[in-house]
Amino acid sequence: MTDHQPAAGPSPDPGDARPSTTDRIVLTGLRAHGRHGVYPQERAAGQDFVVDVELTVDLAPAAASDDVTDTVHYGELADRLVAIVSGEPVNLIETLADRLAAQCLADHRVRSVTVTVHKPQAPIPHRFTDVAVVLTRGRP
Hints:
The protein has 140 residues and is an alpha+beta fold. The protein has helices spanning 40-45, 60-65, 74-85, 93-105; strands at 24-34, 47-57, 110-118, 132-138. It is built from 4 helices and 4 strands; from the N terminus they run βαβαααββ.
């Protein structure tokens, strides 16, 4: 055996590795019309909200199987998040963000989620680009 030959032995089994805590699925710029806000005019007219979510999830099973059922289906997740944004109004985008996070965590594979809710047409009497609430939730 020369110094350049690999050592004999079994190849590492990807299934033996501990689940990753750094794998992520990121969905940004999801837009939906909602009627959230404290003021009556916000409830009456509604406005567009923009949602970003970052899920921490072990992607090794999906990478190994190449099967969408082994991961969080981001298209289906987007549908559920839009339904929440366009659904029952709440006063605060903090409450909306918490509901969106709970929906993400409903999938047992999601270890943690960071949700950002942007309210670009917030009723602020000054020029601004964006107002957003960012929250992170995870499993104990």
